[in-house]
Amino acid sequence: MTTPEMEATIDDNPVPESVAEAPGGGQQGQWRLIWRRFTMNKLALVSLVFIVLLILAAILAPLIATHDPLYLDVSKSLLRPGHENHLLGTDVLGRDVFSRLIFGLRTALIVGFVAELAALAFAILIGLVAGYVGGRPEQLLMGFTDVMYAFPGYLFAVILVTVMGRSVLAVILAIAIASWVGQARLVRAQTLTLKGRDFIEAAQAMGAKGPRVALRYILPNAMGPILVATSFGIPGAIATEAGLSLLGLGVQPPTPSWGSMLTEGIAYTQVAPHLMLAPAILFALTLLAFNWVGDGIREAFDTTGRAQ
Amino acid sequence: MVRFTVHRLVRAIITLVMVSLLTFVLLQLAPGNFADLSAITSGATMTAQGQRDEVMSSFTARYGDQVPAWQQYLIFMKGAVTWDMGPSYKYPSLTVEGIIAGAFPVSATIAVLAVALALLVAVPIGVLAARRRNGWLDNLLMFLVTIGNSVPNYLMGAFLLIILVGRLNLLPSGGWDGPLNMVMPVIALAIGPMAVLARYVRSAVIETLREEYVTTAIAKGGPGRTIMVRHVLRNSLIPVVTVVGPIVASLMAGTVFIETMFRIPGLGQYFTGAATSRDMPLLMGTTLFFAALLVITNVVVDVSYGILDPRTRMERRPA
Lengths: 308, 319
Known about the structure:
Chain A is mainly alpha-helical and 308 residues long. Chain A contains 13 helices and no strands. Chain A has one domain (4-301): MetI-like fold. Chain A starts with a helix and ends in a 7-residue tail after the last helix. Chain B is mainly alpha-helical and 319 residues long. At the A-B interface, helix 6, helix 7, helix 11, helix 12 and helix 13 of A face helix 1, helix 6, helix 7, helix 11 and helix 12 of B.
């Protein structure tokens, strides 16, 4: 896929700034190279375009939705797709399924992005400190890891949500708290490998203090794995929220969520299969798109060539 | 070896204590207790009033009157260790250990069946993909594996419901009365592990195919199928077997969504119900049970790794 020259450039040039020799700034060059490698994976590229479209649809939801997602009219209960201006039909309360789907997308993306970013911020803070400084923060992280291994994220999230209530913010926080540990371990592992590299020692020898080394030299070089983890973390958070909604513990009704749309459809699988089918398909495509983008990023950063 | 095992066991116990403390503290922080909540949800009817009094009296009988929280915790933990956790608040006629003993076999049944199904499909797929490495069949199979890996089990369940119940009307949509009720939950649960295992088998087989004894066997001119089964598969499956244990354990704790979706009276349902109704003994009991399941499996796997491969003995294996 990639020419040996390209790989050599990445390998020999792990320093994003100041020390870089490449004319015109090494950082830009490196990112352009990674982008070029990413675009060679057509599936990842298409998925990225799809995600951008989803984000646009979520932002423009009020314009795209044909009806008020909360407006109910029991006389129009369970209409088939295409009937009476309802593109995807109506649910049992006569609410427009298409509009609920689009607003559900909004819920999913808000929860997915915000929860993942919150988890990531925490993970980077703890992971960097644990890896770079060691000592107490490291023991703390490893202790947490042990506990979280025995306490699966979704079980933890269920308990957290019952404690914090079911507002969007509470659900986001619950998901973030339940998912940061794995990512913190990743950041720590990256920090540990990078810590011993020559360019870090060079920076230290030139007098760079701990926080500067960690933020300007270690973190940028750990961006690859962090980005990969993020692109898998977002669909993970979306799936957790939908799962919580499925249990009746996610974002509270009547706010549309794909999880509660699925549950509401279970009773009508035979009379109105579109109630489940519509959210299930969009949900699956969204998760797949994020996962394929993640695969693409991993390949783009993978300087060891294609994995077997 | 003995020191290693003891060391792992001590850490496992510390982990379980941490999990129980975390759950208990969170529950203390939660707004409202069981009595308040049941009063609200049941509209404080006469029967609910009676039930609430019953719960409160059984609570005071077990934990005493006006006891501080830390004492409640200690009393519960003492009960957990002796497998005598007292009555649940939500189901006052049942004990927590009785509920666990009744519901766990349900969750375990679908989990074990799901892993069996996953292995049954994953091993042939992995071997096939490895033999056609980087060919179109391998690419197709690995593409399907990615899909199976990224779609959560309840979404698989939704698709199964749409096709098998909505479209074909072949199966009951939920409940727990007979083997037909197991079909969809087991398939939905199996897809994820199937994808993980298929990928695992594939890379293990590819690795083994590079071994010199395989080259020797091929050079000696044995039939391909025999070499595949006797030399390659046998040696590739050793590492695969070690991942099956943790998968079974995490599935037993991971049936929560599927149980709700298909109305299966398993442990996950009781866990969710306990969390929402602030049923302290039942929530603590189920959480600790899930945690113990995962921790014990992890210790067993670690120790058996040590027996199988002495090099890993003193190393810290990442969870």
